[in-house]
Amino acid sequence: MRVVHVASEVFPFSRSGGLGDVLGALPAQQARLGAAVTVVSPWYADIAQPVREVWRGALDAPGSVPLADVRVGELVQGGVQFVFVGLGAFDRPGLYFPDDVWRFTQFARAVLPALERVGVTPDVLHAHDWQAGLVVALGRLAGLRAVFSVHNLQYQGRWNLIDGAGWTGLPDWAFTHEGLEFHGDVNLMKAGLVFASQVTTVSPTYAQEITTPEYGEGLEGLLVRLTHEGRLSGILNGLDQDRWDPRTDADITPFADVAGKAACGVALRAEFGLDDAPILGVVSRLAEQKGMDLLIGALPELTRDWNVVVLGGGDPRLEAGLREWDAHPRVAFAQGMNEPLAHRIYAGADAFAMPSRFEPCGLSQMIAMRYGTLPVVRETGGLVDTVPHEVGFRFAGATPQALTRACAEARLTFDDRAEWTARAAEAMSLDFSWDGPTREYLGLYARVLSVPPRPVAGLEGL
Questions:
Q1: Which of 188, 210, 260, 344 is the most buried if burial means most Cβ atoms within 10 Å?
Q2: Which residues contribute to the annotated binding site?
Q3: Are 226 and 285 in the same domain?
Q4: Binding site residue list for ADP-alpha-D-glucose
Q5: Taking the alpha carbons of 454, 219, 380, 96 in that order, is the dihedral positive or negative?
Q6: Confidence class of residue 165 from pLDDT cuts 50, 70 and 90?
Q7: Would the pLDDT of 423 be above 80?
Q8: For residue 72, which of 24, 109, 106, 40 has the smallest C-alpha distance?
């Protein structure tokens, strides 16, 4: 089976968060299980690994804007073929910018012609998030079967319909309410949802949540229909357990059990000058989605019982709010992305806070548990599916008070050393490997290939 993944980022070449982590792990595991796997992503200016250019020129791609001076590069690593598509829109350093709908529309139009240049014909396209949604629609027109994965429904790739329709290379009949049109805009997330044979999200609970007005981001009606048609499911993300392994982690003092974790706590305490109170760690994008405003609101109470170590960057207001607390003897804030420090926090903290307003899957809670660090999480999305009651501490309300109460429960449990150690040992024993999810995806691909594509309601062109 030839599987082609299309995504805006893939670790270790490009990464801003969980999407890149998934694309760094899932294709490799699929290759280990016997699939022929190709991953297509943009050829960003700051990709450091050596990529071999295999083709350069103008691509004959549908749409009103010519694709001139396109570069196609290739690299094989871990049994996976990586194909990079270079366009002028990706020559600036960095991954994401305000004109991303324009940039990723050009990328999507170039994907199928670029695959032809490297001699790859997909059996199944697997596109990820809105940046690859248009690839699903263009692939459907070319007779390809596609799976579309929603990693975060909040970001949809919208642009004014009048200005943007001609960019896409799709026929006029695709721009109706049943197609890409969404409140007068082109919606590239909707392109993936409408035209895919199967749609997945990254956890079973999030698959249910996005069919409701609270989490559906205006697309809940379509998602309810997909559910009724048997086309929407949730497959929980796995964790790269080689990359996140406390027994071999080069960024910490390695350990194999809860007792061995103590040295990492001593080192983290010394690094930030913390006292003997237990450590509550946070490694997160600083955004209201992640509940970081709730964390800041809870700090006056949390610092009574906890040292709080936060690593992250994002919303300038939240960064400023944490900097105001950085002078507190029990608060340490490190701004930005720093993977070695993230490893030290996961290993050295006692508990780990994720007060997310919504969380499609989340990897941080899985990493924390693998390192014997007990999560304090809001009951939403993948946090429900991964944090057992007998291990972590869950709360329902998206308020500082609800977070404070859950942390108070954790603090009381921490004082019962036998109970805390048992929970930490259970956390370290949980299996979050990619093996199970990978087999689910391969089974889904097989079902997609076994039946003809469904007609798309209201779109007579298919």
A1: 188
A2: 15
A3: no
A4: 15
A5: positive
A6: confident
A7: yes
A8: 40
